[in-house]
Amino acid sequence: MSDKKLVVITGASSGIGAAIAKHFSQQGHPLLLLARRLENMQALALPNCMCVELDVADAAAFTKAIADAEAQYGPTDCLVNNAGIMLLGDIANQDADEWKRMYDVNVIGLLNGMQAVLEPMKQREHGTIINISSVAGRKGFPNHAAYCGTKFAVHAIGETVREEVAGTNVRVITIAPGAVETELLSHTTSDEIKAGYNEWKESINGAIHSDDIARSVVFAYQQPQNVCIREIVLAPTKQQ
Ligand code: NDP
Predict the structure, then answer these.
(1) Pocket of ligand 1 (CB under 6 A)
(2) Which of 135, 192, 219, 233 is spaced 20 to 30 Å from 213 by Cα?
(3) Domain membership flag for residue 239
(4) Is residue 1 part of a domain?
């Protein structure tokens, strides 16, 4: 059994989360993967890996999944709050249900994760929480108002909790990617907005790869515990 500690990753059924899972697995960590599409996580076929189907907005399911994984693999040393949805729309016309869905996953889901692991991490005086935000958590883009709201919240929550728990040796890290080639855009309901986004992506020479983000996540985690990389922003070089 490796001495590598348990890493919990949300939204590991596709895109950036699946890449993060593979990179941590290559480093020998046992994993708990969480998302709604169980079969996608199982298809990664990673060793020492528990996959649980859940909605991150369900706090009780989140806590139970972590307790079950810890019973098998020991305490969680790293939580990567990666699950997220992006439903682009103009506020004047967008269905309000889309705003709510984004806040439930991108903000409440992330808070649920932090709450599920923070107290034991504080008591052990060891642990790392990595929240996946976005460049859209630092600046606005057309048709991104509600999504930007959720991602600005990720920065605000992460920075606030980082200060709260710094004295207990627990790290809170925010990683903010620019355009990455994943399924993220596919859930937006407006074909016009999707087409505009794809044109923009071409104009910046394409998006970067999920592995590019996964490398930065593992890099931040692998620093000595007394070094906290507070924030990484990484994007295609031609993205402004
Ligand atoms: P994907 O759509 O490929 O992945 C999103 C992941 O989130 C999926 O695994 C999905 O799993 C999971 N998810 C969505 N809703 C829920 C839910 N209610 N409960 C549990 N899991 C959920 O997109 P990305 O990989 O691009 O997105 C990952 C993160 O990166 C997101 O937070 C996104 O905002 C952020 N990001 C992405 C960028 C990009 O350009 N791609 C840029 C900046 C940030 P399932 O559907 O199986 O539940």
Answers:
(1) 10-17, 35-37, 55-57, 82-86, 105, 132, 134, 177, 179-180, 182-184, 207
(2) 192
(3) no
(4) no
Closest by CA position to 231, among listed 150, 172, 168? 172
Residue 167 alpha carbon to ligand 1 centre in Å: 31
Using the structure block, give the residue that is written with the tokens 């924030």.
231
Domain with 170 in it: what CATH number? 3.40.50.720
| 72 within domain boundaries | yes
Q: How far is the CA of 169 from the centre of ligand 1 (A)?
A: 29
CA of 117 to the centre of ligand 1 (A): 20
Residue type at position 239: Q
Element (H, E) at 50: strand 49-53
Atom of ligand 1 nearest to the CA of 179: 40
User: pLDDT tens for residues 79-123?
Assistant: 999 999 999 999 999 999 999 999 999 999 999 999 999 999 999
CA distance 96 to 175: 28
Instruction: Please state the pTM of the whole predicted model.
Output: 0.98
